[in-house]
Specification:
Ald_DH_C; seven-stranded mixed beta sheet; oxidoreductase; 21% strand; Ald_DH/histidinol_DH; single chain; Aldehyde Dehydrogenase, Chain A, domain 2; 2 domains; Aldehyde Dehydrogenase, Chain A, domain 1
Length: 477
């Protein structure tokens, strides 16, 4: 029997308790983790510990902090095989994807440490000879980081590294469905960072609500729009700064002069990594009429070549859906799209692969709809589902791409430089890709606009602005 993991880190002395929640391999249904959830008293205690940790951690120089954080990242890297295995067991993604996620996470984190070393104040001339004006930046204090289940390493590190590098203490609340990776990240810092500089609280929505309502100094959240609105409302009432990284309904435009084969390969990768359970997944393909049929045939052939199965099976290229609730949502939205006139070109049903017949799988699905109001075009499905629409004329392509409430990322495949430049200026997305998929580079801002996000993005130097406060200091003589 798997031992019960504590409700918080640092763990209470001589802690022993019963499990409030079990995590299961979504492909095989096996119990892979047992966890206790934090009580209100646990939350209060952790916040007190974090406050003390902030005092010790913020007293170090930024170079001292970045040196220690670099050592922490090296510890994490050394645990890559175990960490990837835990991610696969709880989240379901293929082991190769989990390993790649850790590698990207570490590359981004090390870039962020470089940004942090040079992020700071600015000295400007004063209004009289010998006077100086200085813009200072200071850490905020205790930061609450709330992360989802789809990227159990990447998303936490995007919050932890800049917040810690800036001198804050951080309390991490991971998803109850994938807490193992987060606990390994936090434990890797033990004995390296001051106690309380990095804490963790396990629990579901009730625990997260208690943390959001507590006296923290900033909140960084990644998750659904609905939950983000609730957190934003509470944070606003408490005058606590908040960064919200929310969903997406990301489109790719396939122009008639695009190099089609590599474009289709890139679309498949961007759509079906993590079984489509990623906010940056391409979920809408907008194809010019002249290439529509070729795009349709090419997508179907590639989708039917994906191999569903357990994440630890080396042949698997499409993992399971992480939770039963998410599988039910995908099924419901596909049915709703059909009722509203969408045509299922391939897939559209729950899948039972021979290697995991009871697993939480959904077929790679392609829906055809030229109705911009169809649920499959408007709603974030968060699964292995693509919609295919046709267009004529550049104006129509851009109008369709922008015709949702979201604004996270988007792509265009074209050989026409004028159309590419126009798309870069007119697509209503925080991130825009020309002739490749929607994976961001390690040194670029990860940012959404409209219903996809609020505040500075994660990754990139501007992220550090969110985790610090700005002060104007004047010195005469």
């Amino acid at each position: 029997m798997t031992s019960v993991k504590p409700p918080v880190l640092p763990a209470p002395a001589n802690w022993s308790g019963t499990a409030d929640f079990e995590t299961r391999d979504p492909a095989l249904g096996l119990v892979v983790g047992r966890y206790a959830f934090a009580s209100p008293g646990d939350v209060t205690q952790v916040l007190e510990i974090a406050g003390k940790g902030f005092a010790a951690w913020s007293a170090l120089t930024v170079n001292q902090r970045c040196d220690l954080l670099g050592d922490w990242l090296s510890r994490i890297e050394a645990e890559t095989p175990a960490l990837a295995g835990e991610m696969t067991d709880e989240q379901g993604k293929p082991l190769a994807e989990a390993t790649a996620e850790i590698g990207k996470s570490l590359r981004e984190a090390r870039q962020m440490l470089g940004f942090a070393r040079s992020h700071g104040g600015q000295t400007l001339p004063g209004r009289a000879p010998g006077w100086s004006n200085t813009i200072l930046r200071r850490p905020r204090g205790v930061v609450l980081a709330i992360t989802p289940w789809n990227f159990p390493v990447l998303t936490p590190l995007r919050k932890l590294v800049p917040a810690l590098a800036a001198g804050n203490a951080v309390v991490l609340k991971p998803s109850e469905y994938t807490p193992a990776a987060a606990m390994r990240l936090v434990r890797a810092a033990e004995g390296l960072l001051p106690q309380g500089a990095l804490c963790l609280v396990n629990g579901a929505g009730e625990v997260a609500s208690g943390l959001v309502a507590a006296q923290v100094d900033a909140i960084s959240f990644t998750g659904s729009v609905a939950t983000g609105r609730k957190i934003g409302a509470v944070a606003g009432g408490n005058l606590v700064p908040v960064s919200l990284e929310l969903g997406g309904k990301n489109a790719v435009i396939v122009d008639r002069v695009a190099d089609l084969e590599p474009a289709l390969d890139a679309i498949i990768g961007a759509a079906f990594q993590c079984s489509g359970q990623r906010c940056t997944a391409i979920s809408r393909v907008i194809a010019q009429t002249e290439v529509y049929d070729a795009v349709r045939h090419g997508l179907i052939a590639r989708m039917q070549g994906l191999i569903a199965g357990p994440g630890r099976d080396a042949k698997t290229t499409l993992g399971p859906i992480t939770t039963q609730a998410q599988l039910d949502r995908i099924t419901h939205l596909v049915r709703a799209a059909e009722l509203e006139g969408a045509t299922v070109l391939t897939g559209g049903r729950r899948l039972a692969p021979d290697s995991a017949p009871e697993g939480l799988f959904f077929e790679p699905t392609l829906l055809a709809s030229d109705d911009p109001a169809n649920p499959a075009v408007q709603d974030e499905i968060f699964g292995p589902v693509l919609t295919l629409s046709r267009y004529d004329g550049d104006d129509a392509a851009l109008r369709l791409a922008n015709a949702t409430a979201y604004g996270l990322t988007g792509a265009i495949f074209t050989d026409r430089l004028d159309f590419a430049r126009r798309a870069m200026n007119e697509l209503q997305s925080g991130m825009i890709h020309v002739n490749h998929g929607t994976a961001p580079d390690d040194n670029m801002p990860f940012v959404g606009i409209r219903a996809s996000g609020l505040g500075t993005g994660s990754v990139g130097p501007s992220t550090l602005d969110f985790y610090t406060t700005e002060h104007a200091a004047y010195q005469a003589g």
